[in-house]
Amino acid sequence: DIQMTQSPSSLSASVGDRVTITCRASQTIGVSLNWYQQKPGKAPKIVIHAASSLQTGVPTRFSGSGSGTDFTLTISSLQPEDFATYYCQQSHSTLFTFGQGTQVEIK
Amino acid sequence: QVHLQESGPGLVKPLGTLSLTCGVSGDSITSGHWWSWVRQPPGKGLEWIGEVYHSGATSYNPSLKSRVTISVDKSRNQFSLSLSFVTAADTAIYYCAAFNNWFDPWGQGILVTVSS
Q1: Which of A46, A94, A100 sits opposite B103 (nearest CB)?
Q2: How many Cβ atoms from other residues are within 10 Å of residue B90's Cβ?
Q3: Distance of CA A73 to the CA centre of its chain
Q4: How many CA atoms lie within 13 A of B53 on its CB side?
Q5: How far apart are CA A71 and CA B108, in angstroms?
Q6: A98–B45 C-beta distance less than 8 A
Q7: Engineered SS bond to B102: which of A4, A21, A49, B64, CB 3.0-4.6 Å?
Q8: DSSP B9-74
Q9: Could you tell me whether strands A102-106 and A10-13 are parallel, antiparallel, or unpaired per DSSP bridges?
Q10: In the predicted model, what is the mean pLDDT of chain B?
Q11: What is the pLDDT of residue B34?
Q12: Does the beta-carbon distance from A46 to B47 stay under 8 Å?
């Protein structure tokens, strides 16, 4: 299995802050890395696919970068609707695996 | 716009079989996606269960493979999950999702509790 490790597990930030979440794969996965946003009681929603491609309709304050084993999700200016849990997921191996999640909370 | 909707019992007895269906609307199940099941224990992270293609081809998470069957019903434009010999550890929100290099869209999810 390809293990996905996110850091931090949680963070507190204020509206307007720049937020960065990191995801590391246990082996190289190219750019086969996706990011999802999940709000309480809701299904996950795709935010970034293929490491850096912004999903249609997602605000441009979201961006993704990285390749190989190290990836980053950045929110350039945190908005109230961005408080949620974010998951990375690799699609390099057919045994799809997710990171443990990063909860973004209001400071 | 593609819409997925899970349905099935919300309560299953231990050692019984969990059976869920995902109805697909706004797209044909033969469109080229793989159709997946993902679960999330309450307050925890996401676990991929497996997927099916319209041809009937499947792929499963090895950790569940001995207990899982995912099938497709093209006539009803839906796909199904069967998980046998369930225990309390299988209590989770079960999501169906379309996969084409990433999971999108997702169903709203259905909570299944394993309890006597």
Answers
A1: A46
A2: 20
A3: 5
A4: 6
A5: 28
A6: yes
A7: A49
A8: -SEE-TTS-EEEEEEEESS-TTSS-EEEEEEE-TTS--EEEEEE-TTS-EEE-TTTTTTEEEEEEG
A9: parallel
A10: 97
A11: 97
A12: no
